[in-house]
Amino acid sequence: MLERRTAAALLGLALVAISARPAGAQPVSWKVAVFGPPRPATASIEFLAKEVAARTGGQIKIEPVYAEALSKATEMLDGLKAEAFEAALLCASYYPGKLPVFTVLDLAMLTPDNIMAQARVQMALAEHPVMQQELKRWGIRMLLPTPLPQYQMMGKKRITRVEDFKGVRIRVSGEMAKVLEDFGAVKSLVPAPETYTALERGVVDMITFPGTYGFASFRLHEISRYYIDKISLGTQPCFWAVTEGAWGKLPAGHQKLMLDLREPAARAAMQAFAAADGKDYPEFKARGIEVINFPPAERAKLAANAGKHWQEWVADKERRGIPARQVLEFVHAKIKEYAR
After folding, report:
1. Among candidates 89, 86, 13, 75, which has minimal Cα distance to 45?
2. Does the global pTM surpass 0.85?
3. Ranges in the chain, pLDDT < 70
4. pLDDT at position 146, please?
5. Residue 222: per-residue pLDDT
6. What is the rounded CA–CA span in Å between residue 123 and residue 146?
7. How far is CA 135 from the centre of its chain?
8. What torsion, rounded to 10 degrees, do the Cα atoms 221, 222, 226, 232 define?
9. Reduced to 3 DSSP states, what percent helix, strand and coil does the chain have, rounded to the nearest 5?
10. pLDDT of residue 23
11. How many other C-beta atoms lie within 10 A of the C-beta of residue 104?
């Protein structure tokens, strides 16, 4: 009986692969530019690569290329426009003037904790007409959403209240930085691959990254003294982008397959984040790092100013002719819809 079930399951997988392989389709190979090493944030593209290869009988090969081997993190958007590679991991804070609409998801304390809710908000935003115009200018589309855990903090300064931020140099993206700058923090936007050197040399005192995995992935726990948890500043908007040229060469069946795999890929990332937390917390403590749960009352002081900065974002973008209030209201509605 077990042998029959196994045979039936294998036959089912074979039929799925055959159905996803359009007649006459040519083999496709994509290079994906990635900054940093393989880590939970790359689990979604790794899942997609594995599933697409399996379901198309190897006709589509998606190859993530890590550690900025194809492009610096800050140059990946231009690389996509030049079609130097087919896909890449983009984070809007590296290109604030080039992806201004997408920075709405960078606003402090806006995005929900729930990873799947974040993924659905990102996918909805990617289909909004204003965001569509932004992506079209660069000749790209969203291949996969990249939802992230809430941003926490690690480094060499002990922070237990908002007053402790005065004069502290923090690696933090532009919009999330504002609620910290209100209390005297000094913003520094250091590309992720350079954070270890910046902290080691004292260029910055603290680093913000999502969850625990970001700190461990870039080895920051090796040179840090404190981990500030539950400060939950929000999340940085990142996504896996693909060029319209590469996407347009795919048969409709292959395009549908990739779109259908978006949510499963986000779930794979969510599971990877949870597994990393289970491993990283004990390792932090074993290294003598003091784990500080930022007090809710102190976090509320940061959050009290967040709405003011959301409106500043709206005003700034509308001065540039972007219907930012419409975008922010759309995102609020989607967060409410998906975070239920």
Report:
1. 89
2. yes
3. 1-25
4. 96
5. 97
6. 10
7. 17
8. -20
9. 50, 15, 30
10. 52
11. 28
Q: How many residues does the chain have?
A: 340
Question: How confident is the model at residue 25, as a pLDDT?
Answer: 62
Burial class (CB in 10 A: 0-12, 13-18, 19+), 302: buried
What is the pLDDT, as a whole number, of residue 8?
45
DSSP symbols for 60-97: EEEEEE-TTSSS-GGGHHHHHHTTSSSEEEEEGGGSTT
Q: Would you tell me the crossing angle of helices 174-181 and 296-303 to the nearest 10 degrees?
A: 110
The two three-digit tokens of residue 163, written as one number:
């007053």
What residue ranges define each of the domains in the chain, with the CATH number in brackets? 26-148+236-275 (3.40.190.170), 151-234+278-321 (3.40.190.170)
Nearest to 124 by CA among 111, 113, 137: 111
Q: What are residue 202's phi and psi, to 5 degrees?
A: 80, 15
Q: What pLDDT is attached to residue 17?
A: 47
Give every CB contact of residue 312 below 8 A, 6+ residues apart in sequence: 178
- 95: nearest Cα among 110, 113, 114, 80: 80
Provide the pairing of β-strand 226-229 with 186-188: unpaired
Instruction: Tell me which H or E stretch contains 171.
Output: strand 169-171
- The helix-helix angle for 306-319 and 324-338 (nearest 10°) equals 140
Nearest to 108 by CA among 273, 190, 231: 231
Angle (deg, nearest 10), helices 115-127 and 324-338: 140
